[in-house]
Input
Amino acid sequence: MLSLMSELGRYMSARRKWWLFPIIAVLMLVGGLLVLAQGSAIAPFIYTVF
Amino acid sequence: MRILGISAYYHDSAAALIVDGRPIAAAQEERFTRKKHDHRFPANAVRYCLDEAGLDLDDLDHIAFFEKPLVKFERLLETYLANAPRGFRSFKTAMPVWLKDKLFQKRNLETALRPFSRSGRGISDKLLFAEHHQSHAASAFYPSPFEEAVVLTMDGVGEWATTSVAIGRGSTLETIKEIHWPHSLGLLYSAFTYYCGFKVNSGEYKLMGLAPYGEPVYADTILRNIIDVKPDGSYWLDQSYFDYATGLTMTSPKLDFLFGAPARLPEGKLEQRHMDLAASVQKVTEEVMLRMTRDLARSTGIENLCLAGGVALNCVANGKILRDAAFKRVFVQPASGDAGGALGAAYAAHTMHAAKSRRIGSGMDGLEGSYLGPAFSQPDIESRLAASGARFDVLDDDALLDQTVARLDAGDAVGWFQGRMEFGPRALGNRSILGDPRKPDMQKTLNLKIKFRESFRPFAPSVLAEDVADYFEMGEASPYMLMVADVKRNRRRHSTPEEKSLFGIDKLNVPRSDIPAVTHVDHSARIQTVHRETNPRYHALLSKFKERTGCAVLVNTSFNVRGEPIVSSPEDAFRCFMGTGMETLAIGNCVLRKDRQNPALAANYTQDFALD
Output
């Protein structure tokens, strides 16, 4: 998880997208809740999403 | 410098190995796992690539992944944000997958690669991530025979780009413009593929094959309502007709309303309307591509064009670009889909990241026929066939060619399994089913008895490169079966008034030339030119067939049934042979006849594969 955080930091810095930080934080929080509510990472295939 | 390229976790996983700028090995994972479009980490393909070069992962300088997962995640988040609260269902479906798995792709790659390394260390430092369209562009330009070229890549979507233009000069490759998500020519084609009842990501070929049965009566409707195409070929899609950006389907109810009916169900009845829709979207696609290539040729003054990305597999459009002659020469990457991204990422790491100079091949191009997959030695083939219970004769080269040609002339469908497997979606004479193109019923027989697929689907000809102009309205090489041209006028058969009045699928049974099995209803053919330099054995077979029959053309279709990946090993080939109506099989120097096999080995084979 720490390496992911550092990767995200480097990515936002490289692409100058610091404004994404609060959005990523909120979306990851909501997404995290969805993960907790749902057991599996297996999902139906959506063409453009994955 | 040794670089392994990987494409995975989306569809068509693959691995490719280049050493000092030269491709040594490349293969798609589906060929090993026997699961079509397998998206999982390509462990078997990586193992094969390393074994082919006798290397361990520790011996590599870099490992290049074909796209940037975090930038893709950025696109997802920004799309959800821009469309909120619409798209919550899609968000709810996508987020768990990303948060649990896809965001950790670097770690996942390291874990998956560790078993290939003696030391198990240093993998993270070797990992590089190319951009999706950069991988496509590199896969087309670096192996091309051109010193300078415009590189046009078009597909569904990568990170943000859906279309990109780059200029390649020597070892440099610089992107000059892009069209971004959600405006995508690839997704427009895929949306119509879905609307006509075919599977997205694999049914696009079918839509292209269906187009000549219809009339482009909806092309103006599409251009007026759905896509706004500018004179330079750039375009804008009205998203209200689609659902792919935030929903779980490709098209929205507004598209159903525009065309007066809901989407066709998979395997539902094919009507004239679907053929007309296929013809219409094909015409629009060609219009966009032609406007784009004409403008690029004019504005850059460059004479060469390289194409890659899924849209570059639209060989009908490629043929029109070639004949349009805005560019003097056109090179299309044979593995233009995402599998080719593995090769492109490796090329990009070699030339763009490590700044090594590009190696321009001395022959036709740097791929030398795209025969980059596994081969099997004659003793290995014999022991594998014996273990499978096959009964076979072993012949010398001349006898093998003579017997194969005799069986083809007698009307057999012949499995032809020789040398290294092709990289890319086309069988190019090493994992092919061959037939005599002069036989009027060959298309129907191959479709229904051998391939178990829809009867409307056309077959492609392999022709001796030196004879291509005798059969087709084309003089250029097309070694990768990615150019369509018409059968020569003097070979076409004139239709009777009754035949001319036929519509749709009824046109199928009318012979249209002296090579009817490979002549589509609009007299076109998807041509593979066979060259002595890149495939001497297949060239010798065609030459022998010409010597015996006077015909320098064979029907060449991939060695598989509907829904099955192309065969990779002799065992796969024997299973396919026994499960279909194929009469003869030549693997290496072994020849198998169906009537000599143990019938108990003929399993009900087709049920093993989901329909594509």
Chain B is about 35% helix and 15% strand. Residues 2-136+336-353 of chain B form a domain with the Nucleotidyltransferase; domain 5 fold (CATH 3.30.420.40). The interface with chain A takes residues 9-10, 70-71, 74, 76-78, 80-81, 90-104, 106-107, 156-157, 181-182, 187, 190, 200-201, 244-245, 248, 250 of chain B (CB under 8 Å). The mean pLDDT of chain B is 94.
